[in-house]
Amino acid sequence: MSTIEIIEITGAGDIVQRDEGLYLSARHGQITWQEGGGTWQATGATVWLMDGRRPLATREIESPNRLDSEAWWERQRGQITPWARTLRPLARITGPRQAAEAMQHTRDRLQEGQRWGFGSIERELVEEIEAAALPEEIEAARAELPTGPSVLGLPPVQPDPITFWSAVARRVVSRLSRTVTDYQRVALTLAPDIEEHGADLRGWQCPRHTYGWQGDGADLAAIVARELLAGWAAVNSQRDPLLKWSIGSAEVSKTRAHELTGLSRTTIDRVLA
């Protein structure tokens, strides 16, 4: 990866220096932290890894001497650069994840009302689902729950509104959850060699707001590890279907599959059985 530029912030203003691209915002000045029930201040060095206007990672230390701060910035650049492309998709997970959780909560409220025998549906819940749903998701739910036939000349039976909007909400949650998984899988493919660069994340923190509830000073290494493990699980879950399709339909030989994946021939045979 090309070297990420360090841009020094001369004052205590906005850390955003560019609208796009990866760079480091760095500052030498007063730092503040909470410890032992009190608030502490000292002169120090702070650095933020930025992706345009979005902070991806941050770190700070006490550093009374400005020249020492400059040397420290350089060391941090070397540590975080291998992880920069991995953090980009991870920082984009928060929006769809929070939206999925909110939609699931709305769906739970619908289903709770249904369990209690409520025949009506709160308009605000419908509006929340309508605002989040794609037109094709609403149409798919209609196709899934078609209007019942006319019986004895009576009007056709319409789908139960709670069941219908719950089905729409389910599709919204599924789409948003797939988006989260897609970001996790992309991050996994972009991750550097863990044995070589894993320790580099020690001491780095999640910037406020970027990572949702996981932010506000949370340990970056722990967040990255959890997301990459989830990405690995998602990829690994596709192993057996991919092997079956590749060998059964795409005419990839067992020998070639073994060479590409490193899986033993007995494992491949067991998957295909």
Instruction: Order the strands across the largest sheet as they lie in space.
Output: 1-2-3-4
Q: Please give the alpha-carbon distance between the first and last residues.
A: 43 Å
Mean pLDDT: 88
How does the helix and strand content classify structurally? alpha+beta
Total of helices: 11
Shape: flat
Q: What is the helix content?
A: 40-55%
Radius of gyration: 26 Å
Strand count, sense and barrel status of the largest sheet are: 4 strands, mixed
Low-confidence runs: none
Q: What share of residues are in beta strands?
A: 5-15%
SSE string: EEEEHHHHHHHHHHH
Number of strands: 4
SSE layout and pairings?
Elements: E1 6-8, E2 22-35, E3 38-51, E4 54-62, H1 66-80, H2 84-90, H3 94-115, H4 123-132, H5 135-144, H6 161-190, H7 194-197, H8 220-236, H9 239-248, H10 254-261, H11 265-272
Helix pairs in contact: 2-6, 3-4, 3-6, 5-6, 6-8
Keywords:
single chain; 273 residues; alpha+beta; 11 helices; 15% strand; flat
